[in-house]
Design a protein that fits this description.
With about 550 residues, this protein is α/β, with parallel strands linked by helices. Among the domains are: about 115-185, no CATH class; about 460-555, Rossmann fold. The protein is built from 20 helices and 14 strands. The strands form 6 sheets. The protein has a 4-stranded mixed sheet, with helices on one face. A two-stranded antiparallel ribbon has the order 2-3. The longest helix has 26 residues, at about 185-210.
Length: about 550
């Protein structure tokens, strides 16, 4: 019955504890820019809403150094800390990587012509160094590069063939490295790379970084910057004749000083409706730079890249943490007072904690000794237990059971007379299924929700009386066996019975043209594998019919 047939009990605790920390997560439960990688994951028993990818990505959001081909800084997100070894020592922190992303795009938008000139000078320096090392091999390349830099045009192809015929080797890598792009192509290429890096950073931060009233404007700026980046991308890459955009007067025009953040949303709305390309480019460029400056000044990130301090940084700013009761011990060494932590991992014990409310789900199945772990977190003032005392924990040892080892805090508080609030409506089961447990265990005090009493819930897929809302089928002649290298049980006769029912459901689905998804649940993994092997891919070619075979836990965490 879970929470639908359970109750809530309240209690207060205020003790202290101390232990180690290993990542938990942020339970904000919102993500506008989700790319499909966010998911529930288990980290040593801790079920966290904050995807562990955040800790990996955010912890290693560092500057990789200048790209040798473009002179453009790259931000990378290695999967493991061990891969993040060759980084620029001057920019080896999350804060430095974030600022570099912002400042690089700001610099390009503010001074595109100057950036292009510096790019040419950098190539000329490389060419001079190359000529000194190998003048013969690079004669054509150096000559061609100088010509490009001075005239911004391509050398004729026959000049290239001329030097090849004379015996000089022209490396493709050298040709690519020393080729100077026209200004328009340079701006398009660099804008695409820098804006792409920044968009990756914003996506991670917006989805998974804890937020509060102080950072609300920063997250609003992130959304507006993403839209402005798209607008500028369209204008810069427009195939139509947009000479006004490429005029030096417009590109070198000074950006306005930082304006009022409250007015930016209205200015962006005006940019959306503006039809003049020159005006739209000028306004969107100015607004984008202003908002990037605001983010650079106001969104503070940790000055480190070690995983542990990053986890502490996130936990200090989160509003809700989801984890198992046993894994909550990792919070004991998290200083919830931001000022009490050192960025390199040396922490002082906090006097106060911002964790005040503890909610324990399935509390009747949690042993009392486990529940004591989160109850001792400093600062906890209110505890809410949600569970069903008719669904206690399973204790196999008779000695432990006689010693009340499996008794939960929920059960003990109930026996002591603490107030309980019965959740008297169930929304999961067909009334025919809920009738027995409600009458037997809950004295008929639980009613059925409107969703399970509607006509849509009363579907019959097979005409026989045996296939009603539920049925118990006695399968004779079978016996349980174990797999060759395991202890999990399976019953081949029951597998055959399941396949027969699935086949009948498939025929009914095809004949009526109705879509149907069949779920087969087994408590044994060996039985699941046996059914999956027999089902195979038999029904994959039919869009309206599918079969899912999983264990109980498999369906619970789907």
């Amino acid at each position: 019955m879970g929470a639908q047939g359970g109750a809530c009990a309240h209690s207060g605790e205020d003790d202290e504890g101390d232990d180690d920390l290993e990542g938990l997560g942020d339970g904000r439960g919102r993500g506008l820019l989700s790319d499909g990688t966010r998911q529930w994951q288990t980290s040593r028993g801790a079920l966290t809403l904050l995807s562990f990818l955040l800790v990996e990505k955010l912890a290693h959001l560092m500057l990789a150094g200048p790209d040798v081909q473009t002179g453009c800084g790259l931000v990378f997100f290695p999967r493991h800390a061990s891969t993040a070894t060759s980084v620029d020592s001057n920019h080896s922190s999350i804060a430095a990587g974030w600022r570099h992303c912002l400042c690089s795009l700001i610099d390009l938008l503010e001074n595109p012509v100057t950036k292009y000139k510096l790019h040419i000078e950098d190539i000329l320096e490389k060419m001079k160094d190359r000529e000194k090392e190998s003048p013969k091999n690079d004669k054509w390349q150096a000559h061609r590069g100088k010509h490009n830099c001075e005239n911004n045009v391509e050398r004729p192809e026959d000049e290239k063939e001329k030097y090849r015929k004379e015996g000089w080797y022209v490396s493709e890598a050298m040709e690519e490295a020393f080729t100077v792009l026209p200004f328009k192509d340079f701006l398009k290429d660099h804008y695409k790379k820098l804006s792409g890096n920044l968009c990756d950073c914003i996506e991670i931060l917006y989805n998974d970084h804890p937020r509060n009233s102080e950072t609300r404007q920063c997250f609003q700026c992130m959304l507006e910057v993403l839209e402005l980046i798209k607008i500028l991308h369209i204008l810069i890459n427009c195939d139509m004749d947009n000479g006004d955009i490429w005029s030096n007067e417009l590109l070198e025009s000074k950006i306005e000083e930082d304006g009022n953040p409250i007015l930016w949303s209205g200015q962006l709305a005006y940019v959306r409706t503006n039809t003049c390309k020159k005006s739209k480019f000028r306004l969107s460029r100015s607004l984008c730079v202003q908002e990037l400056r605001y983010l650079c000044k106001n969104l503070e990130l940790p000055n480190c890249y070690i995983t542990r301090p990053i986890k502490v940084y996130l936990l200090q700013r989160t509003r809700c943490i989801l984890c198992t009761v046993s894994s909550s011990f990792r919070l004991y060494n998290v200083p919830m007072d931001n000022s009490s932590s050192d960025v390199y991992g040396v922490f002082k014990k906090p006097e106060t904690s911002n964790l005040e409310l503890l909610i324990v789900d399935e509390a009747a199945q949690v042993k009392e000794c486990e529940t004591l772990i989160p109850l001792q977190l400093p600062g906890i003032r209110l505890a809410v237990f949600i569970g069903d005392e008719n669904q206690p924990s399973l204790v196999k040892s008779k000695i432990s059971d006689n010693a009340n080892f499996g008794r939960s805090v929920f059960e003990r508080l109930s026996l002591l007379g603490y107030s309980k609030h019965l959740l008297s409506v169930q929304y999961r089961m067909h009334p025919e299924i809920s009738k027995f447990p409600v009458a037997t265990f809950y004295d008929g005090k639980i009613s059925d929700g409107p969703n399970v009493t509607s006509k849509n819930y009363d579907r019959r897929f097979l005409a026989s009386k045996i296939f009603g809302p539920y049925s118990f089928i006695n399968v004779d002649g079978g016996h349980e066996t174990t797999e060759k290298h395991g202890r999990s049980l399976k019953n081949t006769i029951e597998v055959a019975a399941v396949l027969r029912i699935v086949q009948r459901l498939f025929k009914e689905s095809v004949s009526t043209g109705s879509k149907l998804t069949v779920g087969v649940v087994s408590p044994y993994n060996a039985q699941v594998r046996a059914i999956q092997e027999r089902v195979g891919k038999s029904y994959n070619m039919y869009d309206g019919f599918s079969v899912k075979v999983k264990s109980v836990d498999g369906f619970c965490y789907e």
